[in-house]
Design goal:
The chain has 200 residues and is α+β, with helices and mostly antiparallel strands. Helices cover 46% and strands 20% of the residues. The strands form 4 sheets. Strands 1-3-2-4 form a 4-stranded mixed beta sheet. The longest helix has 14 residues.
């Protein structure tokens, strides 16, 4: 049951244009690191924490911490996407099931990708949300770490790699293929997934 206090908390949280921008950013990204939000919004940490507190207290945004290469990362995700964008919210338990509590630099990235894919196949996670989770972890996992492109097998900096929208594996710009869908959206695929889809 929604109380007057709930209405007041939501109204207060959404009365600030910066908070609306943060929420819009999270709705578009589905899950994001606090550092990325600070960069995108051009906010200092204290200012971001102030705005997030209102959004969290109002039940609009969820957050939890995960260690990535022994560095604490705070991930944020929207909790109100059903009423705002018609997309279901991502249950924290599902995110935790994919991510766990700590990710080491030598973690087998395939293991995370496979967990995300299992959640998609079980219907507990949307495909785009699985990609968002893996992409967020991938971007923050050891900024200096190099990874192999699934297509050519060459070692690349993470900044030079994207993730395949189907298998979530890293792929370089030379090996990626962008497919235009009928609904005018696009999908980034690696060579392997392109072959599987079109029998090439």
């Amino acid at each position: 049951m929604i109380t007057m206090d709930d209405v007041v908390a939501v109204s207060k949280a959404l009365s600030n244009p910066t908070r609306i921008k943060i929420l819009n950013y999270l709705l578009s990204k589905r899950i994001a690191n606090k550092g990325d939000i600070m960069d995108e919004m051009k906010l200092e940490r204290a200012a971001l924490e102030h705005h997030l507190k209102s959004l969290i207290d109002a039940g609009i945004v969820g957050t939890f911490d995960v260690l990535i290469d022994k560095v604490k990362n705070s991930l944020c995700f929207p909790l109100v996407s059903v009423s705002i964008s018609k997309q279901p919210e991502i249950p924290e338990s599902v995110i935790r099931g994919v991510i766990g509590a700590e990710i080491e630099s030598d973690v087998n990235h395939d293991e995370i990708q496979e967990k995300a894919q299992r959640e998609v196949e079980a219907g507990r996670l949307e495909q785009e949300d699985a990609v968002a989770i893996v992409r967020t972890l991938f971007a923050h996992r050891g900024r200096g770490t190099k990874n192999l492109c699934v297509g050519c097998g060459r070692i690349k900096k993470m900044s030079d790699l994207s993730l395949c929208d189907k298998c979530f594996r890293p792929v370089c710009s030379k090996c990626e293929h962008v497919i235009q869908r009928e609904d005018k959206t696009s999908e980034l695929l690696c060579d392997r997934c392109l072959s599987l889809m079109f029998g090439l």
